[in-house]
Amino acid sequence: AKDRGKNNFQFYSAYMSQHAAKMLALESSLRRALEREELVLYYQGKVETRTGRITGVESLVRWQHPELGLLCPDQFIPLAEETGLIVPLSKWVLRQACMQICAWQRENLPPLTVAVNLSARQFTEDYLLEDTAQTLRELGMDPTLLELEITESMMMHNPERTIQILQGLKAMGIRIAIDDFGIGYSSLSHLRQFPIDIIKIDRSFIQDVPGDPADEAITEAIIAMGKSLKITVVAEGVEKIEQLQFLSDRSCEEIQGYFFSRPLPAEEFTKLLWKNLAP
Ligand code: C2E
Ligand code: CA
Ligand code: CA
Ligand code: CA
Is the ipTM of this complex over 0.95? Predict the structure, then answer.
């Protein structure tokens, strides 16, 4: 039996692809990263179109890898999801983001909302409600300052269950945003059934606005729909003044994007917040 185990191992290692080996190495270093606190949150402002005032932030995770440098979420979130490390990672993100909001409040800045991205894996787990409630309680944070961002595909995977979860979060006072809106498959009639507070128009539509008639029409339609359903509409990926002008002319409530600010580490974002207060 001992020999057979050895043979199996040789068989396995011979056929294990380089890719898998690399993933395995990344997995163990991500595990370590969580322990050694190599993860950092960056913050991007969400701005009221009419006034230019920062109303909230979106937290965006980065991994300060000791050898590879600063890694973007696309380089490690999929791995975290596959390996289950997304669970401790997400807990860390939520806690860190809420702690930062509380820190800004202590500095007597006007209250800011904080948006946290949820992963599909996290969304279906039972502990989401409990964990979130516990974090808010421990930090003594106002739940109405927390926004959770989910995508259409996460909602459509199991609509009944989604409605249940969202109602639970809403009951706590948390606000719900649909991220990357427009590229998924949710219909307007579907949308009505979900307790949604915010829609974020996907960057791909904003990219060619103004200019591309189809993208202009879609953007206008989403803004109009938001108004009639009393849902706040945020345009993502605003990089140019022409885009801002287009959105402002159509009374899109809020914008987010490089035009206003790139995602920044907390310290730099704090400076931006103080500057934003000045007239
Ligand atoms: P997202 O939620 O759609 O976040 C917006 C992404 O667009 C961010 O990329 C941001 O840096 C980028 N962005 C913002 N403004 C502009 C702009 O004007 N132009 C362009 N070209 N890009 C802009 P980032 O930080 O690389 O994040 C990528 C994705 O990773 C996020 O997309 C989100 O789905 C995911 N993610 C980030 N942080 C977390 C997290 O803490 N947990 C989970 N589960 N996912 C996260
Ligand atoms: Ca997001
Ligand atoms: Ca998005
Ligand atoms: Ca386009």
Answer: yes
